[in-house]
Input
Amino acid sequence: MNNGPSDMGKHFKGSPVEERALDTYIKLVRASNTATGHARAGLESAGLSYSQFAVLEALYHVGPLHLGELARRILKSSGNLTLVVDNLEKRGLVKRQQQGNDKRFFLATITPSGRKLIAKIFPGHARQIVEVMDRLTPAEQEELAGLCRKLGKGE
Output
């Protein structure tokens, strides 16, 4: 199987720069979807969506966070985060506390039940990620991390 830009030739005809960029982007998205699929394994059995898990994991490892900071940390919009936190709060896994007089400023904290759940499922989650990343050598993982950081920063 050819892994070069010509793989897309039947679907898109553009400049070599466009074809290479689009081909690379498609491979990046497919790899991300595969890795995310592995990372999600086991979360459903705990009754968590990936976003709910991300909130619990952040609060577990970082500590209490204001909702705006939590949204930035897990790469979600504040509107989406509100629904995720509402659902976690209904299950008694997260507690939201108003900060000061501003009704828009809330601090999210993990409850003992949330802490117990994340402590139970995080080791399996980490194993799933290690399993998928083991397809790359340590040097390749470091190279990929650097390239992703470069893309993410827009350098």
